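Weekly puzzle thread! Below is a chain. First person to post its structure in token form gets bragging rights.
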Amino acid sequence: MTIPNILTLLRIALIPAFVICFYLPWQWHYLLTASIFALASATDWLDGYIARKLGQTSPLGAFLDPVADKLMVAVALVMLVERHASPWLAVPAYVIISREITISALREWMAELGNRAMVKVSMIGKIKTACQMLAIVILLANPPGWDHWWVRVGHVLLDVAVVFTLWSMFVYLRAAWPTLRANAGK
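Winning reply:
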């Protein structure tokens, strides 16, 4: 068990913690929930950095890391959609979660065909992740409504993340298209 894998497992373990905090009846639960999510988000960056720096990459880490990220983001977005009950949040959440499912399935299928490298993580995906994580932290830290300027910033960042989400999905699908087309009838 490597340090990066432990950090990834910690990220998964933090999901129930921020879910519980999200529903606490305390006034400061917003900041607590956002802090736990921010800590989990930081472990995403940290585990990758340590894995590369110390040469601790592993097949288990390559599997667990994206699973942890997708679980964390999907759970947070679903909770935010429930709390904010707004199409301004529901539509971006739908796009982000749909893209994550689509690209995960694409990566799995491409790996089965021996072409996983064609859909590896790109810089666009990293920018998307940074925007969406920051947006989620901001939105978790604030009560619903447009009264607070930070909430507006969170929504704008989430919209920017959606643009990068669609852009990265297009890049991944375009890279995989020749293989998809060649294997469509098999």
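Puzzle host: Confirmed. Bonus trivia for everyone else. The chain has six helices and no strands.
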